[in-house]
Amino acid sequence: MAADSQEKSLTAVDVAVIGSGIAGLFLALRCYRNGLSVAIVTKKSLSTSSTNWAQGGIAGVLDIDDEGALEAHVQDTLASGAGLCDEGVVRAVVFDAAARIGDLVEHGVEFDLSADGLYDMAREGGHSDKRILHSRDRTGAEIERALTQGAASEYESGLRILENWMVLDLIRRDLDNPSSGVAGLWCLAPSGKVHTLAARAVVLASGGAGMLHLSTTNPAVATGDGIAMGHRAGADVSDMEFIQFHPTALAVESATPFLISEAMRGHGAVLMTRSEHAAWRAAGGVSAGSAAGDPNASSYMRRYSEKGSLDTRDVVARATDREMKRSGDSHVLLVTEHLDAVELMEEFPTTAAQVAKLGIRLGPDPIPVRPAAHYMVGGVVVDSAGRALCEGAVMPSLYAVGEVARTGLHGANRLASNSLLEAVVYSERAASDLIRKAENGELPALVDDLPRWRDDDLDVLAEHGTLHTDLQALRSMMTNDVGLVKSDARLARAKRRIAHIRSEVVPLWHATKPTQTMVELRNLIICAELVIEASILRRENVGLHYNLDLD
Predict the structure, then answer these.
(1) Which domains occur in the chain, in start order?
(2) Tens digit of pLDDT for each residue in 399-416?
(3) DSSP code for 43
(4) Is 313 marked active-site?
(5) pTM of the predicted model over 0.85
(6) Which of 18, 337, 345, 398 is the most exposed place for a label (fewest CB within 10 A)?
(7) What does the pLDDT look like over 70-82, one tens digit per residue?
(8) Nearest to residue 486, comparing CAs of 411, 414, 550?
């Protein structure tokens, strides 16, 4: 096949960043403002990321001299991780929190203040104290706003931003040797042409894989691209059996999923089944007096945890799933009628506006909720500087930050609001490593003769209907067989089904020109395989992994 035309090569850069959430933007701005040439490649617009949808906040102790508060954050994180956290990583991230949150403030992020002018701290599930900074109930959008404005301000001076460009794959320095690292990437332009982008370093910051499941709080772009690309390039991938389901996604059919922030339960909201709520109201509800009127006493969560509705997400989500299966109901209720409605409206304006569209009044009316796939705990294994590993050794020129990375912070279950903290801490570390290498002349040289993507003799895929069918089959299979509750038989069935889906999709991939739909499905297949295999190999119930046959 003839090589593609010269016009399909892009100007090389020092750092190519794949993704535009908090991790990618923070790192890109840090590197660019320190003299490195940077290109951000994002398959949608800058603001279409899971960061932008994060409502709860960012966890952190701001007083670095408060040893007790720092230790409490460490212990809460270790407890949530169920013994599988890397304690050294946990301590380092917790102790870096104040400085990194300060960086976000310098970028223009505006966190809420209390009446005394100090930061208004919230408490969420699994936390023993109030340590969550927030911007009402749209913290992710506020962080994304500030960082996006920063990126836009640097665009005119040379920061390259490729919106609506889909990265197809990483390019190894030595195609036959994964340990040689990477030298660039192939990306699909909006025009349909594939371009080659050479880079001294590539940073995976493309988020998670929520689209593996039918119900997810993630945007549609969360198709596991970075994890799949890293895996294909030879990077180590670990802990894929640990997928966190958010317990309180709004239970409505919508193309735009919406989660009810964990901070609302921290504020006092209580989970009930529909029958429990009806019985509580029949007994007088709030008006029944202090004891009988306390909704916590009527909540199913009391049967599962002493912490009630404020336990960690894995406990709450599994309990909710069990109650829904027992009753046959499609959802449970998040009850707030015992709380001050005015305060709720002030604290959670985004949620209030969203549920109002459904005719639900925040405060007086219960909110229908159900668990939904929310966060991928596992991913590309990285070291303390965010460098990807290949068979345990540093893989030259490849970094991973944010949800795509497995740092060791979360263990078997992520503590609420630790993810934004992890993203900014590791983005700073990776950026510092890149800047130091650039200053010392240690960044690898650019490869001038990278292989081009060759598809001149391939057909255009005429019908995408089969791909959509395969995608729905994959998501249904993952939801039913590899979801909150697994079993050996379900996992074996999932392994057979994903093999069948692969057998249908891979021949099309090799025979046709790439499209975004095709690339995303290919990546989801790889991620599904990794999740299934890791779930089969994990022979203990721990954290987010629960297999009925291991009880």
Answers:
(1) 16-242+377-439 (3.50.50.60), 251-371 (3.90.700.10), 465-550 (1.20.58.100)
(2) 999 999 999 999 999 998
(3) S
(4) yes
(5) yes
(6) 345
(7) 999 999 999 999 9
(8) 550
